[in-house]
Amino acid sequence: MDLESRMRLERDATAVEELLASTGGRLEHRPDDPDGLYWAVIQPSDISRSPFVVRLLWTVYPQRPPSLLFATAVGGPTNSPTAWPVAAGYRAPNDVCKPFTAEGQGLHPEWAAGPHAWRSVGNPFLFVVDTVQGDIDRVGGERVA
Amino acid sequence: MPDKQPLSIKVTVTFAAAEKPYHHDFDPTEQIGAVLDAALAAFGITSDGTSRYYLLHDGAELASTRTLDEVAGNARALHLRLRTETVQGRG
Which residues of B touch A130 (CB under 8 A)? Predict the structure, then answer.
């Protein structure tokens, strides 16, 4: 990851930490994690539900969307369907086919322009995490069985 | 002579994917739907039916038919958050 991407990502991560903390979640970037790799622990608004762990890997920030997968734990594997929410477009355990992910944009080149184009303005890190939080809350924090 | 009551509610709408917040003074009887439309225009977002946009207050989604007065209560300023959901073009 280039220096500018890393610096902008670290700057924007502060607002992500605040957002997640406000809902009982947290953001982790462990010392051994490569640049651009973050783990967002998202607590559903239904607090009886257990939190989700989102693995976010940024490559060029903020110009490119992140790879976004769900893990069993911080640092854990992403191939367990039960780590994933039942939200529409979240195709456990393979990808999140939405315009805000690298996987979604890769599968749909037509999204590169128009309403689904990646928005690199503002705080895209915050935008992605906030959108995922909304998608999780919309399904009541329910997991794939 | 009694102080004049404020005639408007100062609304701030933040959107993560925007450079800066949207600020505007609205009539208290204005509906959330109108505030949403104004915020989308300010952020340069055209709603095309493939994405749904909505406003949050204290973490809860606001119905478009509610008025600012109902949401604000005694407050004369409101901080709302804009959030989006992709409703088509997935998968």
Answer: 16, 81, 83
Q: Which range marks the domain in which residue A8 is found?
A: 3-138
Its ipTM equals 0.84
Contacts of A105 in chain B (CB under 8 A): none
Q: In total, how many domains does chain A have?
A: 1
SS3 content of chain A, % helix, strand, coil (to 5): 35, 20, 50
Residue A131 lies in a domain: yes
pLDDT by 10s per residue, chain B, length 91:
555 555 899 999 999 999 999 999 999 999 999 999 999 999 998 877 788 999 999 989 999 999 999 999 999 999 999 999 987 654 5
In a domain, A144, yes or no: no
Provide the whole-model pTM. 0.91
Alpha carbon distance A10, A6 (integer Å): 6
Q: What is the CATH number of the domain that holds A62?
A: 3.10.110.10
Six-digit token string for A88: 């529409």
Contact A68, A83 (CB under 8 A): no
A121 touches chain B (CB under 8 A): yes
Is A143 inside a domain boundary?
Answer: no
Contact yes or no for A134 and B85 at CB 8 A = yes
